[in-house]
Amino acid sequence: MQSDLISSILLPLILAFIMFSLGLGLTVADFKRIATAPRALLVGFVCHFILLPVVCYFMVSAAGIGGAFAVGFMLLASCPTGTTSNLLTYVARGDVALAVSFTAVASVVTIFTLPLVVSWSMNHFLGAARAVDMPVGTMMAQVFLMLGVPVALGMFVRHRAPRWAIAFEPRATRIATVLFVLIVAGAVAKGWPLLRDNFATLAPLALCLNLTMLAVGFLAAWLVRLSRRQSVTLGIETAVQNATLALVVASSVLKDDAMAIPGALYGVLMYVGGLAFAFGMRAFVRPENDQADRSAAIAS
């Protein structure tokens, strides 16, 4: 009973607060700004919403992973970019304005794409019976409630009370970070037997997926001649996922603890690859616009 309350009420509320804190750092201008860099937006969308799930699928298949773990990885790959991508972009001297804008837009697009990817994955890895249990429309509505509504509420508060929102947003971000750690710790504790028995297989896959997508995002942007700062940004935006959403969907919507394990692992290991990439790229990017990026990173 207590476990059901945590999965059905507490976890969604924690995710809602995390997304609310994201909304506090957003304005309508963040969505409009992305239109000024349509090529970067297109590359980011291709990398994040197409290449990431495809690469994840082939890696999972090559590793011989199936069942709930495979669905968990595909669920993770279909989540939007994580809010900490903005901070990593700042550390890497990337384009923070692009990172903030892409994070905002990706959170909206995910409402429609995540249910489709997860439904297909359940059908492919678990069979049609499990896929039918979770209709796409129902999941889409649930993801909208967990993502769209809290972000919109945060943006509304930012619009109506900008001074309070700007002052509270850094504190909200710190609270959200603590809550994220608690979610990951809870998922690991709850699924410890599964994690212990499969760590040697799942952890290397999670880290390999992260490093691969950092490289794919960067190289794809570089090949179409985006700036070095934009290339660094899209590498991070492609690989840093909203693992909290993956954990909440697995536990609260799909009600399968095994599906939460890949998200819990990736949620920790992505910072290993992400920080190494950020500090590595920092040496190759000019420190231009550092002051503007510092302001954008703090605001996000």
- Helical content stands at over 70%
Question: What is the correct CATH architecture?
Answer: Up-down Bundle
Here the CATH topology equals: Na+/H+ antiporter like fold
| Count of individual helical segments | 14
> C-alpha Rg, in Å?
18 Å
Strand portion = under 5%
DSSP strand count: 0
Structural class: mainly alpha
Spans of at least 5 consecutive residues with low confidence: 289-300
The domain tally reads: 1
Output mean pLDDT. 83
Anisotropy-based shape: globular
From the N-terminal CA to the C-terminal CA, the straight-line distance is: 37 Å
The CATH class, by name, is Mainly Alpha
- SSE pattern: HHHHHHHHHHHHHH
Oligomer: single chain
Task: Give a quick account of the main beta sheet: strands, pairing sense, barrel closure.
Answer: none
Molecular structure report:
- With 300 residues, the chain is mostly helical.
- Helices cover 85% and strands 0% of the residues.
- The chain has one domain: Na+/H+ antiporter like fold (Up-down Bundle).
- Helix 5 (85-91) crosses helix 6 (96-126).
- The protein is globular.
Short description:
The protein contains 14 helices and no strands.
List the helices and strands and how they pair.
Layout: H1 2-24, H2 28-33, H3 38-62, H4 67-77, H5 85-91, H6 96-126, H7 128-133, H8 136-160, H9 162-190, H10 192-223, H11 228-239, H12 243-253, H13 257-282, H14 290-299
List keywords for this structure.
single chain; 300 residues; mainly alpha; Na+/H+ antiporter like fold; 14 helices; globular; disordered C terminus
